[in-house]
């Protein structure tokens, strides 16, 4: 099968250029101006943006265990609709992939159901409880590409130290949800004036920073690739920046909601504004953006966390933590960062595709290039549209961004040469 994309405004390594892209079976075979060839399918992109497929290394698909919230089919359709061609799924599912057997089963299920590339994190400990380590080698052999206990932090230095040593020996990344539970005190939003006004229990910055400081020292000692999930505090960015200067092998991600929302926007007890880590302050948002712009934070990850309507109704005191992200991320980032002149489209592509690929050693992804796997996405950045629940492919419609007017709508997503999403009306 040969597919020719005509008039693509393609974000290439050498800059954004108007080109034609020829795809043969699973690969890009030629990128050039005016390719004249016979192809089974010719699609006129009409000057719209073509990006290397987006990569999200932090998503929750709830499969197995909570498929009322999401499953691999709906999650991967949400990914495709958001322009993502690769996702890495977190292991806070039931059962937790903490043995080779469970891991193998998950990997097989993921691969058979997903319409995008999918990789699975193994857990760091049995049942993710900070006690007994998994058999890392066995999990790696069964398909784990990295390890994480996301949803919970590792509560003792001893367990983290052992985990880092063993994961380093296997040369895989450790992605950390940093949260000291002894400091959490049943908090549901950022500790501060807004929490006081609303009468809601707060989550202190130390919950994140104290454990992060501990981990950075253990990472320095062990040399492991330590990746910090969903950084939320200015102080965390500073700690990571210093550790990088000191030569610690630390990388980090930020979620769109931590860039664009803060506690002052929580004007009432609203479960849609509840996520972990919580929305922080304007100063934190600015520091996260600076961290992205200066390279301290290498990538954007959505932390796509779908929940049922019931789980996100009522008070923040009892609602579940987390919001969905795959289908809104690009639009929000394009509108609020690129359109407003804060960064270039090339930078955004670095954070959403090229750098996740580089940092996590994802082969044949992150760049539009002849000879590479044809993972790409076509974005219409000229037409404004409204984020609406009814359009979501995800089972989770729990996001405070519903109703926002944005630019950057996915028109087409291609995974290994196969069109997995195409907006109706597109030729
Ligand atoms: N981020 C969240 O608020 N929730 C995540 C867990 C996590 O990422 O820690 C979830 O699984 O729902
Ligand atoms: Zn987490
Ligand atoms: Zn998460």
Automatic annotation (TrEMBL):
Cofactor: Zn(2+)
Residues the record lists as binding substrate: 60-62, 92, 276, 307, 321-322
Keyword set, alphabetical order: Hydrolase, Metal-binding, Pyrimidine biosynthesis, Zinc
GO biological process, one term: 'de novo' UMP biosynthetic process
Comment on bound cofactor: Binds 2 Zn(2+) ions per subunit.
Binding site for Zn(2+) 2: 150, 177, 230
PROSITE patterns, per the entry: DIHYDROOROTASE_1 (PS00482), DIHYDROOROTASE_2 (PS00483)
UniProt cross-references to InterPro entries, sorted A to Z: DHOase (IPR004722), DHOase/Allantoinase_Hydrolase (IPR050138), DHOase_cat (IPR024403), Dihydroorotase_CS (IPR002195), Metal-dep_hydrolase_composite (IPR011059), Metal_Hydrolase (IPR032466)
Record EC number: 3.5.2.3
Listed Gene3D superfamilies: Metal-dependent hydrolases (3.20.20.140), Urease, subunit C, domain 1 (2.30.40.10)
Taxonomic superkingdom: Bacteria
Catalytic residues in the record: 303
Alphabetical list of Pfam families matching this protein: DHOase (PF12890)
Signal peptide residues on this chain, from the entry's feature table: none
Pathway of action: Pyrimidine metabolism; UMP biosynthesis via de novo pathway; (S)-dihydroorotate from bicarbonate: step 3/3
Annotated residues for binding of Zn(2+) 1: 58, 60, 150, 303
GO CC term, one of those recorded: cytoplasm
Family: Belongs to the metallo-dependent hydrolases superfamily. DHOase family. Class I DHOase subfamily.
The protein's role, per its UniProt record: Catalyzes the reversible cyclization of carbamoyl aspartate to dihydroorotate.
Name this polypeptide is given: Dihydroorotase
Annotated source species: Pediococcus stilesii
Species lineage: Bacteria, Bacillati, Bacillota, Bacilli, Lactobacillales
Gene behind this protein: pyrC
